[in-house]
Amino acid sequence: MLELKNLSFSVTENGYSKQIIHDVSFVIPDDKLIVLTGPNGGGKSTLARLIAGIEKPDSGRIFFNGQDITEKSVTERARMGISYAFQQPVKFKGIQVLDLLRFAAGKENLSTADACDYLATVGLCAKDYIDREVNESLSGGELKRIEIATVLARGAALSVFDEPEAGIDLWSFQNLIQAFDGMRRSIPNSSFLIISHQERILNIADEIFVLTDGKLDKRGERDAILPDLIGTTSAVAGCRKIEGGGESVC
Ligand SMILES: Nc1ncnc2c1ncn2[C@@H]1O[C@H](COP(=O)(O)OP(=O)(O)OP(=O)(O)O)[C@@H](O)[C@H]1O
Ligand SMILES: [Mg+2]
């Protein structure tokens, strides 16, 4: 179980402090799939980085399975069972896909056949990729899918995916949904935080959290939140502009 308690975070830009996350609290219980959504720039990726330990909050605490992990490093959190797939995947020059999957799984002896299974799950023809280097020769979608495969291979207690659908074509998108499903079934008590704007991913959520301007705007069971998000401006708010003294959404 992951618990965020009154988390706030700001950055300094041009000498000024800019608050990005405002007093966010929530719980992700074991065995739940949460989808975090909301407008661009709302703070979703920042929150994911705070959970992974890439950023440290200004105030508030993060607990994982009852243990305060606020001061723990990325590596310590990974060892404790938190896995994170970036919105923009990282390239690993000089490392082959097979080695990356072995590293992610924490098994030097992960067989080629098992590694291929992870690639097949994300819709990649394994024989074409297993020996490829994880560098800029891979397309954005291929890189994204390989990164998702590493999170599948890790099989962590808590997996955080930041916009897993980004750059993924429609055919593989269905595979992706099935991969989340399979992961839920194969790792007992596993929980997921998936950042997404996609209705098909929102549809597999147990609960939906909406983050707007760094604040937790809405949260609740999928069926209570989703109808409100679909077809309204509340999921993706327009830009605000001042017109004739009044504010309108464009
Ligand atoms: N290091 C930084 N310096 C300045 N501003 C930052 C920094 N990191 C994040 N921000 C700003 O914080 C806000 C939240 O960014 P974040 O990437 O978390 O949004 P997001 O909800 O993931 O958006 P998207 O849906 O577009 O991925 C944005 O306005 C972004 O420009
Ligand atoms: Mg983001």
Please give a handful of descriptors for the protein shown.
6-stranded mixed sheet, 9 helices, 33% helix, binds magnesium ion, 4-stranded antiparallel sheet, 250 residues, Rossmann fold, binds adenosine-5'-triphosphate, disordered C terminus, alpha/beta, globular
Can you walk me through this structure?
The protein is built from nine helices and 14 strands. With 250 residues, it is of the alpha/beta class. The chain has a single domain (2-249), classed as P-loop containing nucleotide triphosphate hydrolases (Rossmann fold). The strands form four sheets. It has a six-stranded mixed beta sheet with strand order 6-9-10-3-11-12, sandwiched between helices. A four-stranded antiparallel beta sheet has the order 2-1-4-5, with helices on one face. Helix 3 runs parallel beside helix 6 and helix 4 (112-121) packs across helix 6 (140-154). The longest helix has 17 residues, at 170-186. 35% of the residues are buried. Residues 233-250 have low confidence and may be disordered. The structure holds adenosine-5'-triphosphate (ATP) and magnesium ion. Residues 11, 13, 18, 20, 40-46, 87 line the site of adenosine-5'-triphosphate.
